[in-house]
Design goal:
The complex is a heterodimer.
Chain A (H helix, E strand, L loop, with lengths): L1 H8 L2 E11 L5 E12 L4 E5 L6 H9 L6 E6 L2 E2 L7 E4 L11 H6 L9 H14 L15 H13 L5 E5 L7 H18 L2 E6 L2 H7 L2 E5 L7 E6 L8 H4 L3 H29 L1
Parallel strand pairs in A: 3-8, 3-9, 6-7, 7-8
Antiparallel strand pairs in A: 1-2, 1-4, 4-5, 9-10
Chain B lengths: L2 H24 L1 E2 L2 E2 L3 H4 L2 H14 L1 H33 L1 H16 L5 H9 L3 H25 L3 H9 L4 H19 L1 H18 L5 H10 L3 H29 L4 H9 L1
Antiparallel strand pairs in B: 1-2
Helix pairs in contact in B: 3-12, 4-5, 4-7, 4-10, 4-11, 6-7, 7-9, 7-10, 10-11, 10-12, 11-12
Chain lengths: 275, 264
């Protein structure tokens, strides 16, 4: 009873999800072994793991972009069929339409909802203002810096007001300062209406600074969750300042103990493959 | 290089060539010039002929016909290429089945089709439009096909996650991507539309620049042939300039477009 009630109320619930990819030469590659992952409404969960461990793959399952080989995905208690309409997905790579201005990129996100164009443009303007880009509304993506493009992408997703945010190393390509600024912006926006967040990153410090809970995935193949740590740091947080707190270091040390082994394992495999 | 410097150098090259041509066909060594004006004409004669053609007004009708054929060939070829490019790019099976036929049709030298088109469509403009169509169609077709196939998977996944249906994807993702590729081949395809028109006229017609050149050639009027070629060359440069202007306007979002305007 307890567990099913938890699953019913969960924003995202992956149960026994495993993912295998077909290899070009035949056979399959088991990317992710049977994994359970539950994100409660309003909870900020970060997934860390070594490169290539399948954390992005798991996120794609939650988005409905990849069908798992086994297991079920439910979103707010309903089994997921097709794409996850409750979720906004922030990609690592550039996902903006290069042929549209920042304003049009954000406004077009409302078109599937049937919002009239004039109102969509008005709301897009407001959202670009909220992410601090009101001056750049008429710029095309190639005229924007990496951080500015992420801001547009964030506005594009948030304007639809999704109940879940799925983020795939969104700040990965950015420089260190911009990452901190974007992290703080994300926390500010998240604090306003507390969406459920599943945030994939390879940066443990970023994960701890942002999240309520940090999940560690093991090195692939057949990766699975090997650690799950609640982050008992207060909010609101400042990404840069929180890193100096002793409690932050204690948590970091604790999670790193698990993560280090996996990173070494992944690295050894990588070396082995190259040899 | 500054624009004015570049332009004056470009003009200098043209004048130099004209002077060489002039000297070779006028300065006499013994009894005759090095190049016989009967076969090579003279630049001043050619310019005089061009002037005469425009002054008498006879050339406008021919220019108008060639332009009409070029525009019609481009429009029909582009529409056909876009439609088929889309259908083939979105339908794997259709593309696979028709692949050898498309390749065979594209490999065929279009000149051999000209007599058939003349039988089918007559000696008027439509046989030339058909010839231009077969040239433009394949350029636009392959570009649109590739453009639709090579849409960034991330942009596509993002648009899907934003909730777009097939129609909205077509409008906001596939269509602009295909147009980009089409416009990047705009110079080539407009050029080929003109080639189709002129070659068609040359092979059999009663009007147009190709006809003018062919007519002069058949009476050994070399000056007339050169005059036709000069008019054709200027015509091509004007069309190309217009295409560049359209391209810069439409592809304003592309990084390259920005650097082009910065230079200009």
């Amino acid at each position: 009873m307890g567990e099913s009630a938890q699953a019913a109320s969960a924003a995202v619930a992956l149960r026994g999800v495993s993912i295998a990819f077909l290899l070009p030469k035949g056979g399959t590659y088991p990317a992710v072994a049977a994994t359970d992952l539950v994100v409660a409404p309003g909870e900020f969960v970060a997934i860390v793991g070594p490169t290539g461990c399948g954390k992005s793959t798991l996120l794609n399952v939650a988005a409905g972009l990849i069908q798992p080989s086994t297991g079920t995905t439910s979103i707010f208690g309903r089994p997921l069929a097709g794409l996850n309409a409750e979720a906004g997905f922030l990609f690592q790579q550039d996902a903006l339409m290069p042929w549209k201005t920042a304003l049009d990129n954000v406004a077009v996100a409302l078109e599937p909802r049937g919002v009239p164009r004039k109102e969509a443009l008005e709301r897009a303007r407001q959202w670009l203002d909220r992410v601090g880009l009101s001056v750049f509304v008429d710029r095309y993506p190639h005229m924007l810096s990496g951080g500015q493009k992420k801001r547009v992408a964030l506005a594009q997703i948030l304007i639809r007001d999704p109940r879940i945010l799925l983020m795939d190393e969104p700040f990965g390509p950015l420089d260190a300062q911009t990452r901190q600024i974007m992290g703080n912006l994300l926390l500010d926006l998240w604090a306003q209406d507390k969406k459920a967040v599943l945030f994939v990153t390879h940066d443990l410090e970023e994960a701890i600074a942002l999240a309520d809970r940090v999940v560690v995935m093991s090195a692939g193949p057949a990766a699975t969750i090997v650690g799950d740590t609640a982050i008992d740091l207060g909010r609101p947080r400042d990404i840069a300042e929180i890193r100096t707190e002793p409690r932050f270091h204690a948590i970091h040390k604790q999670i790193w103990a698990t993560l280090r082994g996996e990173v070494q394992k992944a690295y050894a495999q990588g070396e082995g493959r190259r040899a | 290089m500054k624009r004015t410097t570049l332009l004056s150098l470009q003009i200098a090259v043209g004048i130099l060539l004209l002077i060489v041509w002039h000297l070779l066909t006028t300065v006499k060594f013994g009894a005759k010039p090095i190049l016989d004006p009967f076969f090579f004409s003279r630049p001043l004669d050619v310019l005089a002929r061009v002037w005469k053609d425009f002054y008498a007004g006879t050339i406008w009708r021919h220019l108008g016909i060639t332009l009409l054929e070029t525009v019609l060939a481009f429009i029909t070829g582009a529409i056909g290429g876009i439609v088929f490019g889309f259908v083939f790019a979105r339908g794997e099976i259709v593309a696979a089945v028709f692949d050898p036929y498309i390749k065979a049709a594209n490999a065929l030298p279009r000149v051999v089709l000209a007599p058939i088109f003349m039988l089918w469509f007559g000696l008027g403009i439509w046989s030339k439009v058909a010839l231009g169509f077969t040239l433009v169609f394949f350029i636009v077709f392959f570009n649109v096909y590739q453009g639709v196939r090579e849409v960034s998977p991330t942009i596509l996944a993002n648009a899907r996650m934003l909730g777009m249906n097939e129609r909205q994807l077509l409008r906001h993702v596939y269509w602009p991507a295909a147009l980009t590729w089409m416009f990047s081949s705009l110079h080539t395809s407009v050029g080929f539309a003109l080639v189709g028109a002129v070659v068609g006229e040359y092979l059999g017609s009663s009007a147009g620049l190709g006809y003018k050149i062919h007519e002069a050639e058949s009476v050994f009027d070399v000056t007339g042939v050169f005059a036709g070629m000069v008019i054709l060359a200027v015509f091509v440069i004007i069309i190309d300039t217009i295409v560049t202007a359209i391209e810069n306007r439409l592809l304003i979002w592309r990084p390259q477009a920005q650097s082009t305007t910065a230079q200009g």
